[in-house]
Design goal:
Structural class of chain A: alpha+beta
Largest sheet of chain A: 5 strands, mixed
Order of helices and strands of chain A: EHEEHHEHEEHEHEHHHHHEHEEHEH
Largest interface: A-B, 15 and 24 residues
Shape of chain B: elongated
Shape of chain A: globular
CATH topology of the largest domain in chain B: DNA Polymerase III, Chain A, domain 2
Strand order of the largest sheet of chain A: 5-6-1-7-8
Distance between the termini of chain B: 76 Å
Strand content of chain B: 35-45%
Radius of gyration of chain B: 25 Å
Structural class of chain B: alpha+beta
CATH topology of the largest domain in chain A: Alpha-Beta Plaits
Oligomer: heterodimer
Number of strands of chain B: 25
Number of helices of chain B: 7
Strand content of chain A: 15-25%
CATH superfamily of the largest domain in chain A: Reverse transcriptase/Diguanylate cyclase domain
Distance between the termini of chain A: 60 Å
Chain lengths: 384, 372
């Protein structure tokens, strides 16, 4: 028997635009369009809710968008930054449940024990507002379909439920376009049979529907009754945390490699601390210009989670195994992950204490403003 | 000269002194056993520069002298076929002839001139030198109650030691591996110590417990010249002290508890043993919760989960935390009291195990940081 669970769909509202407004407070409250250049054939990738009021929407040519909303501020997309924030959102989800299906960069289904969904949805919504100041809409129900529709109803920036009991009153009045599998073409076809709302579809005999929709008829008919058998596709159990970087040009300079190692170590360290994990094995991955790739690791007596410890180990590993330049790629991985940590009697030594405070402060800034806001001077390169 | 003796008795002496032989050494001379002979005693000594053991046995003879015995002699005597054995020593070339029944061994000994005996036993004037008498079985008991908590990892050398603090009428032993701490006190009206702290390697104390034997008898424990020594009649044991500075741990023992439970020790031991079957990883974490006079133990791991409740007398608030099951089992196994007290000091604070109506012993364990 299938276990009864609550399913949440969490959707970050106008995600790319929200990240830009998050990073640049001066954009807040203003129509922001993320997308290509207005001179060329650029299109709108995402736009803020302020811009949507003017009728701007995704995939609209930029020229048209600007004629609808001349005051809009156009921003070029920064995918790496959006990925980074999405990673942070993902980590917040992971604090609440291990059962997550990532649909896209700004959308994920989460599963909770039956009865806990609404509360979890509220808490996650508030948490993401508080930690990342991003708007997020959360739909709560018992299957993916209803969670998705609840999420549509919740937009923007709210939490809504759509339980099976309310299918008649809340789902049926909606256009059939809300159902998955019904695009403009199918909708047009169904309209010709007088099927406009979900209620029309639900009331239509299944056999007749099969002639229009083919094999999908019974599934879509089920959707119209609020039934959805799809289960979540989970990625299970994080075994390691890693970051790597491929150089645009092969690198010869060791100091540059050290600077990159520092950055990767800080990234891995941040993600460890965020997930409240420690690592007992630190590994570096090194690719040479001939594509030969090696990984070399070190297992430690005491688990680590601090940037400086990880950096120290990766630097030593690199020193030992660096081979002949140039290098093409370098990566840092933390594995042998342990949850929580055994507390120790020793109040940390002064330098450790200092580093801990520094790291905590940096993590806070990182969470709030992103990883580029503060970094070690070593990462600055001459002329950059 | 010839020594004739009971094989078993000689084997016991050699096996005891063997504990101080170095496993590997760059100083070849100390891989041998020193034998000193005087008119009525055979004295065997060995050292690895960390511990030093001397064992003596009675012997009738007129000669005296000293020789280094190769370590092979321990097994030769141990497996000797006859109940008595005789050893002939040729002082000219240090050749040993060991015989009994039809068995005859020749071994090559060597001169004892370079054996570093003096560096260990010369009780030259040390103003802080003191000694006190003890009952062997009580001394062994107090050692066993603390030595298990000392660290065996070599990352922080001070914690490889057990701290002996002599003061007035009290000897306090302290051991810790930084995750837990044990403090045991023993008092005697007849003592009056100057205040001295010595840090004795736990490894040496574990060796001592192996050779100490059973039963009640008077022993003398002393410290001098950066050594702690125990003299129990025919055996003299000494250990070099660690020179590390032991951190002051008094600050980590909190005063008032937030939750106190009184619990049947054996029942808890059995429950935690069962829970430990599913505990995993380095931390071997078990979840402990106390509420409404119930002591709840839970484990949830990749292999499965368990839960079990025990009735307790509870004083104070409810509490829930994670703790290493091995650390808890260590104390429960070592004590034999029927009931034991556990004090909690909030979620991130330590658990303190105490004895009923006895403040001379406490065992503190820090919890595992809770996962969000």
């Amino acid at each position: 028997m299938k276990k009864e669970r609550d399913i949440l769909l969490c959707d970050l509202d106008a995600f790319f635009a929200s990240v830009e407004q998050h990073d640049r407070p001066e954009l807040r409250g203003k129509p922001v369009i993320v997308g290509g250049s207005p001179e060329g054939r650029g299109v709108v990738s995402t736009c803020s809710y302020e811009a949507r009021k003017f009728g701007v929407h995704s995939a609209m040519p930029m020229k048209k968008a600007l004629s609808l909303c001349p005051s809009a501020i156009v921003v070029r997309g920064r995918m790496s930054r959006y990925k980074e924030i999405a990673g942070q959102v993902r980590q917040i989800f992971e604090c609440f449940t291990p059962d997550i299906e990532v649909v896209s960069i700004d959308e994920a289904y989460l599963a909770f024990p039956a009865g806990e969904g609404l509360n979890a949805g509220q808490v996650i919504h508030d948490h993401i507002k508080k930690e990342l100041t991003l708007p997020i809409s959360v739909g709560v129900s018992t299957n993916k379909l209803l969670a998705k529709i609840a999420c549509e109803l919740a937009k923007p920036d709210r939490v809504k439920t759509l339980w099976k009991e309310s299918v008649n009153s809340k789902l049926w009045p909606l256009s059939i376009r809300v159902l998955p599998g019904i695009g403009p073409v199918t909708a047009e076809k169904l309209n010709r049979f007088g099927i406009k709302t979900v209620k029309d579809l639900a009331a239509y005999p299944l056999e007749s529907l099969s002639r229009v929709l083919g094999n999908n008829a019974s599934i879509i008919h089920g959707y119209a009754h609020g039934i959805d058998e799809r289960s979540l596709e989970f990625e299970r159990d994080v075994k390691s945390i890693s970051e790597e970087t491929t150089f645009s040009d092969d690198l010869y300079d060791i100091n540059t490699i050290y600077a990159i190692l520092l950055e990767l170590s800080a990234g891995v360290g941040y993600r460890l601390r965020f997930a409240n994990l420690t690592s007992r094995t630190i590994t570096i991955k090194l690719r040479f210009s001939d594509f030969k790739t090696i990984t070399r690791g070190k297992t430690l007596p005491e688990p680590v989670d601090s940037d400086s410890e990880i950096y120290k180990i990766t630097r030593a590993l690199f020193g030992k195994h660096r081979g002949k330049p140039p290098w093409r790629l370098i990566g840092v991985q933390a594995s042998g992950l342990e949850e929580g940590g055994q507390l120790s009697l020793l109040s940390p030594s002064e330098t450790e204490e200092k580093e801990k405070k520094l790291t905590e402060a940096r993590d806070k800034l990182h969470k709030k403003y992103g990883s580029e806001v503060i970094f070690q001077a070593r990462r600055l390169k001459k002329g950059k | 000269m010839q020594i004739s003796t009971v094989t078993g008795q000689l084997a016991t002496c050699l096996e005891t002194v063997e504990k101080a032989l170095p496993v590997r050494t760059t100083v070849p001379v100390i891989s041998n056993i020193l034998l000193q002979i005087d008119s009525n005693k055979l004295i065997f000594s060995a050292t690895n520069h960390e511990i030093f053991i001397t064992v003596s046995m009675d012997h009738e003879g007129s000669d005296s002298g000293s020789i280094l015995l190769p370590p092979k002699i321990v097994d030769i005597v141990r497996y000797f076929p006859t109940p008595s054995v005789s050893i002939d020593i040729n002082w000219e070339n240090y050749r040993l002839d060991i015989s009994g029944g039809s068995a005859r061994f020749h071994l090559y000994g060597s001169s004892s001139d370079d054996f570093p005996l003096n560096s260990v036993v010369s009780a030259s004037s040390d103003e802080t030198a003191e000694s006190f008498s003890f009952d062997l079985s009580s001394f062994k008991k107090i050692l066993k109650e603390v030595v298990f908590a000392a660290s065996t990892e070599e990352t922080r050398p001070a914690f490889n030691g057990v701290l002996f603090t002599f003061k007035d009428q009290t000897l306090t032993l302290t051991a810790s591996d930084t995750y837990r701490l044990v403090v045991s006190k023993i008092q005697d009206e007849s003592w009056s110590f100057k205040e001295v702290r010595c840090l004795v390697p736990a490894k040496a104390l574990r060796e001592f417990l192996r050779i100490a034997g059973e039963g009640h008898k008077g022993i003398t424990v002393g410290y001098q010249n950066s050594l702690l020594s125990v003299d129990f009649g025919n055996i003299y044991f000494a250990s070099r002290l660690l020179e590390e500075k032991y951190p002051d741990v008094s600050g980590v023992i909190p005063g008032d508890y937030k939750t106190r439970v009184v619990i049947e020790r054996k029942l808890l031991e059995d429950t935690i043993s069962r829970a430990a079957l599913l505990a995993e990883g380095k931390n071997q974490a078990v979840n402990i919760a106390v509420k409404d006079n119930s002591f709840e133990v839970r484990v949830s791991s990749q292999e499965g989960s368990m839960e079990e409740y025990l009735p307790v007398e509870q004083d104070g608030e409810s509490i829930e935390l994670f703790v290493n099951s091995r650390f808890v089992l260590d104390i429960l196994k070592i004590r034999d009291e029927e009931k034991i007290i556990i004090d909690f000091h909030g979620e991130g604070g330590p658990l303190i195990f105490r004895l009923m109506d006895d403040s001379s012993y406490l065992y503190l364990v820090l919890p595992i940081k809770k996962v969000n």
